[in-house]
Amino acid sequence: MQKLLQDVIVLVKETGEFIRQESRKFDESKIEYKGKNDLVSYVDKEAEQKLVKGLSDILPGSGFIAEEGTSTHKSDIYNWIIDPLDGTTNFTHGIPVYAVSVALMKRGVLALGVVYEINRDECFHAIKGEGAFLNHTAIKVSETRTLEKSLLATGFPYYNFDQMRQYLTIINEFMQTTHGLRRMGSAAVDLVYTACGRFEGFFEYNLNAWDVAAGALIVQEAGGTVTDFKGGEDFLFGREIVAGNITQPRMLSTIQKHWK
């Protein structure tokens, strides 16, 4: 698995370099829309093609769950969950917060995760049971023990606003009981920033597996807790996630108080 991880890191960084180069000459007229406020560009698509080809070479016969649908092949054993450019809206607007996210599932269990934050050249990675790392240096979640001294991250839905009133109520309470909330625009970045202690926690709903898979494993391997809004384990495909350090249960309690 370590050899596999090193090969994935090389591929992810090469893909990140492609995205970095394209950011310097990106033409906004080439933005496409998959749905309301759901942006995609040729950069996302070409980056995903690079990842699918490279990962297929690294692990022949593996399947894919990929945001842009480059490959729909599924495997009984190994499946990659990839987001070629998490933070596309940031990218298209020139905001330097976006990442490449790659996770590997083995028989339905997350086994490996890599998130490469391109503009800071920060590569976060983890293998299940072997800890979490930032550029090969071990990382741990924050040691802050109270919600009152915590900085949290969240995200806002860009479609399906049916539950916004409840969500804003949750945000309102956290604004008054923490050091504040940040909205980075990339769930993968929010998660790895939680893993290395920059945030104490992160919560969001209406997410996809490729948004959270790699980051969730990295948080867990950094000593954090990851659940869905019910406190269960369906954060990968259940479209909601609460990740954090020792304050995670209190975050969860606040969310459950208002979330129906």
Report what the structure shows.
This protein has 260 residues and is an alpha+beta fold. It contains 7 helices and 14 strands. The chain has helices at residues 2-23, 42-58, 88-93, 164-177, 187-195, 209-221, 248-258; strands at 32-35, 38-40, 63-66, 78-86, 99-106, 109-117, 122-127, 132-134, 137-139, 151-154, 180-182, 201-205, 225-227, 240-244. The chain has a 7-stranded mixed beta sheet with strand order 3-4-5-6-7-8-9, with helices on both faces. A hairpin with a 2-residue loop joins strand 8 (132-134) and strand 9 (137-139). Helix 1 runs antiparallel to helix 2 and helix 4 (164-177) crosses helix 7 (248-258).
Supply the helix-strand structural class.
alpha+beta
What level of helicity do the residues show? 25-40%
**DSSP summary, beta strand count:** 14
First-last Cα distance? 40 Å
Name the overall outline. globular
- Strand and helix order: HEEHEEHEEEEEEHEHEHEEH
Low-confidence spans: pLDDT under 50, at least 5 residues?
none
Mean pLDDT: 93
Sheet having the most strands? 7 strands, mixed
**Percent range for β-strand residues:** 25-35%
The count of helical stretches stands at 7
Kindly provide the radius of gyration, computed on alpha-carbon positions and rounded to a whole number of angstroms: 17 Å
Placed side by side, the strands forming the largest sheet appear as: 3-4-5-6-7-8-9
